[in-house]
Amino acid sequence: QQPVQSPQAVILREGEDAVINCSSSKALYSVHWYRQKHGEAPVFLMILLKGGEQKGHEKISASFNEKKQQSSLYLTASQLSYSGTYFCGTGVNNNDMRFGAGTRLTVKP
Amino acid sequence: GAVVSQHPSWVICKSGTSVKIECRSLDFQATTMFWYRQFPKQSLMLMATSNEGSKATYEQGVEKDKFLINHASLTLSTLTVTSAHPEDSSFYICSATQGPGGGYTFGSGTRLTVV
Which residues of A touch B107 (CB under 8 A)? Predict the structure, then answer.
């Protein structure tokens, strides 16, 4: 079953923050986050495995709620390079990864 | 870091012909690889899970006789689109993971155009 992502699209000015949400109707084994730029393959951002886990790299971070049914991706002080489509992915035992519909992020100067 | 090589990057073929796409894990062994298809502005849809030394597992609605998957070694999986038709035109992407708890590494994708 595919996770549900929101919002579908967001437009930001450079330096602004954004939050992308990913939810499931049942508990998840893990949540992955990827970014895909137009015409390219998705690039792995991070994986969360434990309920309550939070992690980040530079100004992009993510959380995985206690009940393991929702994850959020936080982009702080966005940069032009953050533009792209963000996908969350979920699977059972890290196999058969299924992706949400994606959130198209556009960062403008 | 883990690298997955996929080729060709693009291919144009005539309707009715077959096309083979290769996916290689360059610096790690992958007993399992995954094949996805992505239509423009849409999400990645899992087509099948490729298992080294055994039959692939196909998602519901994916024709296994049309999309032949062979995972002959721990570093190579191939997807052959047989008797391709224009509706098969899409972006095909493979991926692999180094193990439980790891992220997926994607190949660069293959854009297939059937004319």
Answer: 41
Give me the total of CB pairs closer than 8 Å, taking one residue from chain A and one from chain B. Answer: 55
Whole-angstrom CA distances from B73 to B24, B77, B87, B102 are: 10, 7, 30, 21
User: B97 contacts in A (CB within 8 Å)?
Assistant: 94
> What percent of chain B is predicted at pLDDT more than 70?
99
- Residue-wise pLDDT for A75-89, tens only, equals 999 999 999 999 999
CB B83 within 8 A of CB B16: yes
Q: Which two tokens stand for residue B32?
A: 């399992």
Tell which of B6, B97, B105, B112 to mutate to test the A interface (max A CBs under 10 Å). B97
**DSSP secondary structure letter of residue A50:** S
